[in-house]
Amino acid sequence: MTQFDQKIDSESIQVNAQGNVQKVDLAIDPGLDAGTEDVPSSELNAWRRGITPQAEIWNGRLAMLGLSVGIGVLLLVRIASH
User: Which residues, 6 or more positions from 15, have their beta carbon under 8 angstroms from its beta carbon?
Assistant: First the structure.
């Protein structure tokens, strides 16, 4: 069996400078997230101003709400115009 007969996951291969394909070990190191800690949901939902994670969360939520309302209005206008 050649290397081309083996099924290789596309995320686990790497092509070097000479064009040779090499399999890469993608084992996840549990120590990589050692600096992160869980934040309680009450802290994430806090209404904080400035450049904070809470402001980014609310920004994303309100952006999705605005996008949904905008698409809904466009669909209603399109349906009503026929």
Answer: 21, 22
